[in-house]
Structure formats: structure tokens, C-alpha cells
Amino acid sequence: MQKNSALSQPKRGELPQLNMTANSQNLISALRHGLIVSCQAPVDSPLHDPLVIAAMAQASVNQGAVGVRIDTPAHIQAVRKQCPTTPIIGLWKQQIPGSEVYITPQFHHAQAIALAGADIIALDATLRQRPGGETLSELIPRIHAELGKPVMADIDTLESATAAVKAGADVVGTTLYGYTASTQHLQPPGFELLSQIVEQLDVPTICEGGIASPQMAQQALQLGADAVVVGTAITGIDWQVKAYQKAMREGYEL
């Protein structure tokens, strides 16, 4: 796959001025039909270390991943150093009192991960109220104008996907399907939501959340996803061990 020149890095502390239309096209050409690995770990895990996260990212890229999804500026910076040409979808999870929005909730969070080396800014694009009075329709254009970065909108419903596209999102992901009050009764992956977005919206779409096998990733592509993000099933050692332990304990008790 050719290197994506629009995803090359500026000098430390600088932000590029990009043509957002051209950058969105380059984004899809770089990620199309590929696997993006989410390299994250719980904050209380020994894996939650910049060097370990960077090693996860490098291992993923070595085996053919077309990009990685990374949380926090410190981890993004470490991954950028280890993987200088790999597209990084960056985010910063922040719990802010009074708001349920936690994935890159405010502009200054987006700015921090952009400066750390993220190529694409991922943010919560649900219809929930954002902290600090910011709105999606203001936030996305500001990220474009001031940070020069394309935006991945993490959505939970077709309605939120539509609003994100209207606000200028460059790509949408089914990331929050099943994780909001309006979708908590639904089980990821959001294949039905993915199909609706592909059919009704003219926007690059990434299937993320609940992809637990290669076959499920394949199904997502067959439904029209431009790329697939896999996290826990590949890098979630803490969660996977807990799941095995729980199942084995329950089986023994039977």
C-alpha cells in the first residue's frame, strides 16, 4: 500500500494546514478494506504504558494493520515515534462531571492529541450534550480550520451519524452503538446500523465495536464498511483473561 502523504507529520509542535476534501480521499485510500487495531488498555493494567502500547501498535502494523486507534497524548506520541508513517486515529477519553460524552469531549482535547501526532481526530458524535457548551457543529469545523485534521465521528444511531455528516465529519464509525442510553439494549457489532449508514449516507464508514473474529470483520466489509476497527479481541488481554476465567469457573461449578 502506498504511503499517504497527507498523513505525514509536521515538525513537533506544529500543525499542518490541509485541504480537508483531499485529505478525506487520501484517508480512505490508505485505510480502505483494511484492519485498524485499537491499542488500548485499562488504566490499572501494566499494559497501560506508552512503550507497551507502542509495541502493540508496531506488532499490529508488522502483520498488516493499515492503521491504529490510540487513546491519550502520551500513548499517541509513543506510537508516532515507533510507527512514523502509520495512520493514527487519536482520541482522549476524559470523564467530565455532568456529561456522558467522554471520547475527545472538547476542542482542547482534540488539540492535544493532534499535537501528539494523531492523523485523524476521533470524537463522540452522539446527540448527547457536550461539556463546556461546545456543539458538534462548531467543534468539527474548528478542528478542520485550526488543527488541519480530518474527523472520525463515533456515533450510536443513524440520527447521530446524519448530524455528524451535516457538521462536516470526514468519516463515521459505529463505535458507540450499544454504549449509550438510547442503544444500551442493543448488542454490538452494529451491523444493521452499518448497513443503514452505507445505504443512506454518502460518507466513508468504519465498523467498530464488538468485532470478535476474522469472520465478523469480513462480514462488516461485505456490508459496505470501508475499514474495520478491532480492539479487545486482539489487544484486550485483561478483558480476555477475565472472560476465560469467568467461563471456566462457571463451568467447574456446574
UniProtKB/TrEMBL annotation:
One of its GO terms (cellular component) is cytosol. CDD domains: NanE. InterPro entries: Aldolase_TIM, NanE, RibuloseP-bd_barrel. It comes from the Bacteria. It catalyses: an N-acyl-D-glucosamine 6-phosphate = an N-acyl-D-mannosamine 6-phosphate. Pathway: Amino-sugar metabolism; N-acetylneuraminate degradation; D-fructose 6-phosphate from N-acetylneuraminate: step 3/5. GO terms for biological process: carbohydrate metabolic process; N-acetylmannosamine catabolic process; N-acetylneuraminate catabolic process. GO terms for molecular function: N-acylglucosamine-6-phosphate 2-epimerase activity. Keywords: Carbohydrate metabolism, Isomerase. Pfam families: NanE. Its EC number is 5.1.3.9. The keyword Isomerase applies. Converts N-acetylmannosamine-6-phosphate (ManNAc-6-P) to N-acetylglucosamine-6-phosphate (GlcNAc-6-P). PANTHER family: N-ACETYLMANNOSAMINE-6-PHOSPHATE 2-EPIMERASE-RELATED. Belongs to the NanE family. This is Putative N-acetylmannosamine-6-phosphate 2-epimerase. It comes from Coleofasciculus chthonoplastes PCC 7420.
